[in-house]
Design a protein that fits this description.
7 helices; alpha/beta; globular; Rossmann fold; 322 residues; single chain
Length: 322
């Protein structure tokens, strides 16, 4: 089977036809929502921007560095402004922050769809449609970094590995950053949502090459020269969880009987994310990648992702300067 890994450093087709903005809405604090008609998705989707100082008075040749922030598996483009208030962070006043919507459990991937491809092509939408569109008409420059939470943490590191040179740094918070370590967890999550789990990359045995082509663990060498930060909790209650924190919703099939969770784990998803992040961190170090980590007691919760984003900002913003 032929597996495509895009060429380094740039969108594959900056002039991709058909993508267009069908509406634009500005809200408070420099937030702009673009509704985009996307051939890659086969539907419309929203891209939320938080705009830098001076953006509204921009000239045609003005460009700002870009921080691409990726949402979790629900693909909610509002989560970074609603839950984490990134529009209030003074560190981001000179950066165009881009937060694209994604279909439910879209996994930041051009879906395999039984070998037929086609929608939803999430990577193509975000990297080959949205970014060039923003460069053409909304002041986006080509100095970029990327970060994400949960499934977006996978997207951030996978994108940086699949497109070497496109992003100058990447950070994943509680990310599914080594999906071949726990394919049963992806199956469990998609079964729980009533989705076809093999539609993303195919079968992890028969289409293993396609899984590896998206799994950062197998793309580690492609991240040399790109600083990476990985952070995750261990699934136990931590300092940012309320005293009455409840266990996560039970998802049948999430636990591997041969590798059960500890008795104190109340967030099985987060426990898996820590295992994957630790495995990837070790592999990145073997490959000579500059990687920093933060592992802590904690659950799969937005409170931790807000904290981890703030901790990662110096790494994410330093490459955008100058």
């Amino acid at each position: 089977m032929r597996v495509e890994i895009p060429r380094p450093g740039r969108p594959r087709n900056p002039g991709r036809p058909g993508v267009r903005v069908v509406s634009e809405r500005s809200t408070a604090q420099g937030i702009v929502d673009l509704t985009v008609d996307s051939p890659a998705l086969g539907r419309t989707a929203t891209v939320r921007l938080t705009t830098p100082d001076g953006w509204e008075e921009r000239r045609p040749d003005d460009r700002w560095p870009v921080l691409l922030l990726l949402a979790g598996g629900d693909g909610d483009h509002e989560s970074w402004t609603r839950d984490h208030r990134v529009q209030d962070l003074p560190e981001l006043r000179d950066v165009l922050v881009v937060m694209p919507q994604m279909p439910l459990f879209g996994f930041y991937t051009n879906w395999w769809n039984g070998g037929a491809g086609g929608p939803p092509a999430v990577e193509r939408f975000q990297l080959d449609e949205v970014l060039p569109l923003l460069e053409r008409a909304y002041g986006a420059g080509t100095r970029r970094t990327v970060a994400g939470e949960s499934q977006g943490g996978f997207g951030a590191v996978s994108y940086a590995a699949r497109r070497p040179g496109m992003f100058r740094a990447a950070a994943g918070f509680s990310g599914y950053v080594h999906p071949l370590q726990h394919p049963h967890a992806i199956k469990a999550g998609m079964d729980h949502l009533g989705l076809d789990w093999k539609a993303i990359w195919g079968d992890p045995v028969a289409q293993r090459a396609n899984w590896e082509a998206h799994d950062p663990y197998y793309l580690a060498e492609r991240l040399r020269g790109t600083p990476v930060r990985l952070a995750s909790g261990d699934g136990t209650a931590g300092v940012l969880d309320p005293p009455d924190v409840e266990p996560d919703e039970h998802i049948p099939g999430l636990e591997d009987p041969d590798d059960p969770f500890g008795p104190d784990v109340i967030s099985p998803t987060e426990a898996l994310m820590e295992r994957e992040s630790r495995a990837l961190a070790g592999r990145l170090r073997e490959a000579g990648v500059r990687v920093t980590t933060h592992f802590y007691p904690g659950t799969h919760s937005p409170a931790y992702w807000e904290r981890e984003l703030k901790a990662a900002l110096p790494m994410l913003l330093k490459p955008l300067a100058g």
